Amino acid sequence: MSSTKITIHDLPKENLFTGGHTACPGCGAAILVRNAMKVFGKNTVIYTPANCLLVFGGTYPNISWKVPYHHVAFENTAVCSAGIKRALKASGKDDALVVGFAGDGGTADIGMQALSGAAERNEDILYIMYDNEAYMNTGIQRSGSTPYGAWTTTTPAGKVIKGKERFKKDVPQIMIAHNVPYVATASIAYPTDLLTKLEKAKNMKGFRYLQVYSTCPTGWRVPPEKTVEVAKKAVETGMWTLYEYENGKMTINVKPKLDENGNLAVPVRDYLKMQGRFRHMTDAQIETLQKWVNEKWKRDLALEKALQ
Amino acid sequence: MYEVRFHGRGGQGAVMAAQALADAAFIEGNYAVAFPFFGAERRGAPVLAFARVDKGKIYEKTQVYEPDYVVVLDDKLPLMVDVTKGLKDTGMAIINTSLKPEEVELGRAVKTATVDATGVALEVLGTPITNSAILGAFAKATGVVSIESIKKGIMDIFGARIGERLAEKNARAAEVAYERTSVGICKGTLIYPEEKKWLPTAQEFPTGGALGLEVKTDAGLIGLGSFVENKTGSWRTFMPVADNSKCVNCKLCWFYCPEGAIEMLMNLPESEIPAGTGTDPKGNPKGIKIDYDYCKGCGICANECPTKAITMER
Ligand SMILES: Cc1ncc(C[n+]2csc(CCOP(=O)(O)OP(=O)(O)O)c2C)c(N)n1
Ligand code: SF4
């Protein structure tokens, strides 16, 4: 496995996703996209489906992207990106990187069949899901990627049912099951890990999938200045595991603190209490979620061991 | 019929204010509608909401273009948008400001009501959310709806969203604002730059709509990279201020800024580095330069700086 680390200090000065965009103050997706473009460079073509990024990245004819970018429909990210790549290849521009940037709704739910098809065909694209854990552009509806217990406008916190009743869909594992060359999870709060994965994914061939935890202060009811703090806590509590799967091998890149029994040391409660979307949760619900996180962590560890 | 246009920022609750007004008018036996401007506006960006009230059924479905009243929730908004645009000559502007009506500057000299709704909200609610207080001023200044009905409207609309206890506080904020509202004529001294739009003919329109990089037109830049002309700094409430002597050039703020509004001094030409700037152990100039044209004031930089070199100021 190549292990050249890319740090903040390796990034160039120029922004290929410019200021003037209209993301909410403190938007995690904007942090991701701006820095990812520094890694990708000018020889890049972008596809975005309907989502916050499409909207905040430009209002025709004014656009933040400084590289060609396309938009077709909500469910088509993977297949449109693949088509763009094939067209570039046919015209002798195989060196150009094609990146599909979609939200969790556009990936875990509506974009899933196109994504699965493109992965199975091993199309030569980099697919990035910025995971803000709900459909934010249309005003905070639950997606398959919304965590258990979270309030959204379609999983309201009422007297009987309090927030989402189902657990977060594990899309990276679905992608690993496609046996593609590269699958990784990352977070805006771990710059070196994120940038290294972006660089690696950029330079590989075939289908690459990256899922990046991207705080949405507006939809999560978090003060904008806490965007990065919340994202750190997600990793510390095990709510979000940073790992990569490369040519059949899986590696957990950042290990959360564990207690003497090997269990996660930081309780999920510490993560939940930072966010308004979990405010209504009962002790029983928090316990249910803690159990799920403990099991998820054990499963991730077991997978790492199995996939060596 | 009377028509109202609310000017706020995303997240300030202009839509709830419009709804509470419509509810109040309905309680008094009118027909009423309230609706937002449907657009891509996000938290902090200027937004519009509308209300229409009539004795009979309302068939109009358009936005309000010639309002009888404009209600302005944020005193910085008139500097960015002409809130008097389309306002009827007989109309009135209701503005959240600590100034007297005669001291307020707008695009036209119009009948103006003022109230320090931010002050009232801080006093009664403990947060600077002005959408309830401003409705009290509306009732006082226009007389078209009673303060009792406004309070009921707030209880209905706010109550359903934030609970009865907080709704009661908001009703109280409206009542306090009602008492503190004054009416006069503002100054019509603000001049707004002419709005320019790129309107190509069918022949000029590029195939597939594809635009090049930073294309210059009479209406300013268009195409890739042209969003730089959208200066989002006006969204800001709090402002980051850097003490460069404490900076250790870790670049974390430079990375985390969602806007790219922070530049490292070491990335700037020598001519732009202020005299007296210190250097880090590698000999690079130490510190950052914040571009307030774009900074939305999110505060991530101040929160993440390991040496607390950045503070947020009002
Ligand atoms: C086929 C289709 N259905 C619905 C929509 C409306 N729509 C636009 S953006 C969006 C939400 C996107 O959510 P997500 O992919 O999670 O990205 P986010 O907005 O959270 O960044 C929806 C439902 C659409 N554009 N097309
Ligand atoms: S709603 Fe969330 S994801 Fe969308 S622009 Fe705002 S902060 Fe970013």
In angstroms, what is the radius of gyration of chain B?
23 Å
User: Count the strands of chain B?
Assistant: 13
The name of the CATH topology of the largest domain in chain B is: Pyruvate-ferredoxin Oxidoreductase, domain 3
Characterize the main sheet of chain A.
Answer: 8 strands, mixed
Find the CATH superfamily of chain A.
Thiamin diphosphate (ThDP)-binding fold, Pyr/PP domains
* Main beta-sheet strand count, sense and barrel state of chain B: 7 strands, mixed
Look at the structure and name the CATH superfamily of the largest domain in chain B: Pyruvate-ferredoxin oxidoreductase, PFOR, domain III
**Which stretches of chain B are poorly predicted, pLDDT < 50 over at least 5 residues?**
none
| Total of domains of chain A | 1
* Distance separating the two termini of chain A: 12 Å
| Overall SS class of chain A | alpha/beta
CATH class placement of chain A: Alpha Beta
Mean pLDDT across all amino acids of chain B: 94
The N- and C-terminal alpha carbons of chain B lie at a distance of: 41 Å
Question: Which molecules are bound besides the chains?
Answer: thiamine diphosphate, iron/sulfur cluster
How are the strands of the biggest sheet of chain B laid out side by side?
2-3-1-4-5-6-7
Q: How is the CATH topology of chain A named?
A: Rossmann fold
Structural class, from secondary structure content of chain B? alpha/beta
Strands of chain A, total number: 10
How many helical elements of chain B?
A: 8
In short, what is this structure?
The complex is a heterodimer of chains A (308) and B (314). Chain A is of the alpha/beta class and 308 residues long.
Features:
heterodimer; A: 308 residues; alpha/beta; Rossmann fold; 8-stranded mixed beta sheet; two-stranded antiparallel sheet; 10 strands; B: Pyruvate-ferredoxin Oxidoreductase, domain 3; Alpha-Beta Plaits; 7-stranded mixed beta sheet; 8 helices; globular; binds iron/sulfur cluster
